[in-house]
Design brief:
Keywords: Decarboxylase, Lyase. The protein is built from eight helices and six strands. Helix content is about 40%, strand content about 20%. Helix 8 links the parallel strand 5 and strand 6.
């Protein structure tokens, strides 16, 4: 199995299609390698989803909250490490402020031997602690581990906007080019 094993990847166009079905008009992000295919696909103006690159994950969360205050829907694309860095902004705006935050979190550092297995069994702390931290914060999450899980993109979207708070989609492997 090599690093781009397609059994564990979901195509960028699947994200775009589901974002559009859920009226996501913006994406804020600190660009990362795991989701590079999605970043590139978002650059195509035909999708009508504006991507805003941020310098920190806090800025991505805060910009998404501002977009929501302006009446639009936004997804936030970050890595697990960035999620940890932005917990206070997520708590203040998403949990205390009841702002829907769709967090699309790439599992940076996940070892290839763990693909297809429970991420909680990863040898890397930043991978295995993500779900317990989300549970501690009361943030519902969905795993995206293969094409079989593509409905979880829709579930995570709907959950954020129905609960008026954060919801996470945990992207287990590289997003594939479509």
């Amino acid at each position: 199995m090599h690093s781009l094993d397609s059994r564990y990847s979901v195509g960028a166009t699947q994200f775009i299609r589901t974002f559009r079905e859920n009226n996501i008009q913006f994406v804020t992000t600190v660009p990362d390698m795991l989701q590079i295919a999605l970043h590139q696909e978002l650059e195509n103006p035909i999708h009508e989803i504006r991507s805003i690159n941020c310098t920190t994950e806090d800025q991505a969360i805060e910009t998404a909250a501002g977009i929501y205050a302006g009446g639009k829907r936004c997804a936030v694309l970050i890595q697990n490490q960035g999620f940890y860095a932005a917990i206070n902004s997520i708590r203040a705006l998403g949990l205390d402020g009841h702002i829907p935050l769709l967090l699309v979190i790439g599992q940076f550092g996940r070892e290839f031997a763990n693909l297809g297995h429970d991420p909680r069994l990863s040898n890397r702390l930043m991978v295995r602690m993500l779900e317990p931290v989300l549970e501690t914060l009361g943030i519902p999450y969905q795993r995206l581990e293969s094409e079989n899980d593509t409905n979880n993109i829709d579930i995570a979207c709907k959950t954020a906007f129905e609960r008026n708070g954060p919801s996470a989609l945990l992207v287990g492997h590289f997003v594939s080019f479509s």
